[in-house]
Each structure stands twice: as structure tokens, then as C-alpha cells.
Amino acid sequence: MPTQLSQRQALLALNALPHVGPVTLRRLMDAFNRDAVAVLSAPRAQLLEVGGIGKKAANTLIDWADRFDLAKEVTQMRRTGTRFFIQEDVKYPELLREIYDPPIGLYWQGEYIVDRPCVAIVGTRRSTVYGRRVAKKIAAELAGLGFCVVSGMASGIDTAAHEGALKVGGKTVAVFGCGLDTIYPPENLDLYQKIVAHGAVVSEFPFGRRADRQTFPMRNRVVAGICQGVVVVESAASGGSMITARFAGEQGRTLMAVPGRIDQASSVGCHQLIRDGAIMVTSVDDILEELRYQRTQFPGEESQLNLGGEDAAQLQVSEAEQAVLDCFAGGEFGLLDDIAERLGKPIAELSGILMSLELKRLIVKRADGRFEAK
């Protein structure tokens, strides 16, 4: 064993060893008073006394230096600007520390450290245009309000969620199901670089670890564990998003889902979650209400939603839209029929105008069916 092995180095080695998963690591750390150096220096007989530790795991721990090149790992971390946060660090996500089987350490790239409420937005890789649009819009609004958007940087919904947060200059964290030296999927290299620059990419897996059927569920528990709530946007009846949803339930997180078309397979999972008690999300206000936040709790942040690109263009209103907005001057509100009569417009035409104004977040439809300017 290397001389003067530190606790952090010992945890780095423990975290990288095969046949030693999160639950096994927790048992080992509990048995050795959270002393990772003691775990790696313990005799075989003492290791075998720990519940759940078999001969394979014991042999791995005894021969750890032959199975993991600590010096090489540290060198690569320095070269790539990667840090390794352990549970005792104040920069380790607070909520993640509270779950049953938190990672003993996280590889971390990016200067951003979680400093605000987090919401996960996850969904299928085989997403529809509707699903990606909704995920991007929700993520942009949440990030603009001051939340951190967390996802897994997979194709489809995950990618849209990260892009939405970045678009408004917000914060986002991508949790990898592999080592941080493997960009998966490869086409997301540019997205990865943007997240590192403006947020953070995180993994509990060492460099060189490839994604597989074991690592993705482990990644999903971290996605849910970091967040106060999880929003599922499009999911089949089974798959990674449903696993994340299950972890959210087990960890006591607020589980939410966006409804979709009843004739599409990508909506089945969300509808199943809603049927089983998940909160139905049709706007960001549903998320804020469920998490008990108000827009005014994030002063100065919401203005980011209207900076540049499409969002600035959306604030442009036509003459017909302005005429409708004028009906709400002075805080007035009214029913569709009343507005139609006042403007002398057909209800069908007016419905389209009102919908456009709602999408631009210039008006809102109240629970009693009346419209009101925001």
C-alpha cells in the first residue's frame, strides 16, 4: 500500500474497485468507523466478518493496489480539472448525502457547486418534437427562476432539458452513467463543454468506466437524490426514466409527470405515473406550487427568460393581440364570451389569440375560466 494514504485517496480507490457497490461500501464504512484507510488495510478475516462481504469482494479489497492505479487517476484528475468530493465535503450536494446509499464520492468537473434548489427533468431518448419542446421550455423557465436543472445528458428529453437551462443563462448539472472521460452520447460533446463551462458534470464512476446496465440505474438514483423534485417528460412503461421515478419515490422526492397523447408509446409511462399518484404538470406553476415556491422568492432571476433569441421575439405582439391585452388594462379580467362581445370578434378567432398570449406568458387563465393579464 502507498505510504501516507489519505482518507480522500482511500475513498477514491474504494469507489473504483469492482465487486464493491454503494451498499457494500456503506457497510464497510460503518464497520470501520468511516475510516477508508482502515478498510483498505484490514486483514481478510476482518473483512469477511462484515455482512455482505464475500470472498470476491474481500480479495478485491486486499489486492486493491493491483486493481486500481491511484497515481494515474490522480494525474488524470489534475490534467482535466476534475475534483473528487466526498460526503464530508461542504461542496457535496446536501440532499444527496441524505439518501440510503449515497456515493462515497463524486467526480466533479465545472466550477458550479449546487447552491440552489434542484429539479430533475428526465425522459425517453426516443422523444417527440412535443416532448423536447416541453422539456426545454420547462427547463428554461425553472432555470430563469433560479432553480438548477439536473438531468443525465442522454439524447432526447435530457438533452432538451440541459439546453433549455443553458439558453437562459441558468445552471444545470449533468450526471453521467460512466466515467467523465467518456462523453455519451458522443454527439453531445458540444453540450458537455457548455455544461462544464456554465454548470457541472458529475459522476461516481472512475475514469475509463464504460456505461452499462448497472451504471445507468446507479446514475438515476443520483439524479433523483440531488433534487427536491423529479419531472418526467415522455417515457415508455419501462426504462431509465421510470427507474429514476422509482428512486424519487423511495427517496421521498416530489414526483411529477407531464401528460402526453394517449396514442403514443412515449406517453404511457407518464400517464401510468399520474394514475399512480404523481403530480400532473402542465406548466411551471404546477411545479412551483407543489414544491411550495413562489416566483417572488427568486428576485432578479425571472428577467433572464426574456433575453435574446426566440424569447425576445415572443414578446412581440400583433395588433390583434394588443387589442386583447388592452381589455385587461387596470387589472380587469373576463370570460371568453365577454371579451369576444367587447371586441366584436368571433370566439374561434379570439381563442387563438388568447392561446398565443398565454404561450407568451402575458396572460393566464384562472381556475374559474376567466383570463387575467400577468
What does this structure look like?
The structure is a single chain. The chain has three domains: 1-68, DNA polymerase, domain 1 (Orthogonal Bundle); 107-297, Rossmann fold, CATH 3.40.50; 317-373, Winged helix-like DNA-binding domain superfamily/Winged helix DNA-binding domain (Arc Repressor Mutant, subunit A, Orthogonal Bundle). Helix 9 runs parallel beside helix 10, helix 10 packs across helix 11 and helix 12 (215-226) crosses helix 13 (240-250). The protein has helices spanning 7-16, 22-31, 36-41, 44-48, 55-62, 64-67, 70-80, 94-97, 129-145, 157-167, 189-198, 215-226, 240-250, 268-275, 284-291, 309-314, 319-326, 336-343, 347-359, and strands spanning 83-86, 105-109, 118-122, 148-151, 171-175, 200-203, 229-233, 254-258, 279-280, 333-334, 363-365, 371-373. The relative contact order is 0.09. The N and C termini lie far apart (65 Å). It contains 19 helices and twelve strands. Helices cover 45% and strands 13% of the residues.
Q: For the record, give the distance between the C-alpha atoms at the N and C termini, rounded to a whole number.
A: 65 Å
Oligomeric form of this entry?
single chain
* Topology-level CATH name of the largest domain: Rossmann fold
Continuous helix count: 19
Cα shape: elongated
Keywords:
single chain; 13% strand; Arc Repressor Mutant, subunit A; Rossmann fold; alpha/beta; 3 domains; 45% helix; three-stranded antiparallel sheet; DNA polymerase, domain 1; nine-stranded mixed sheet; 374 residues
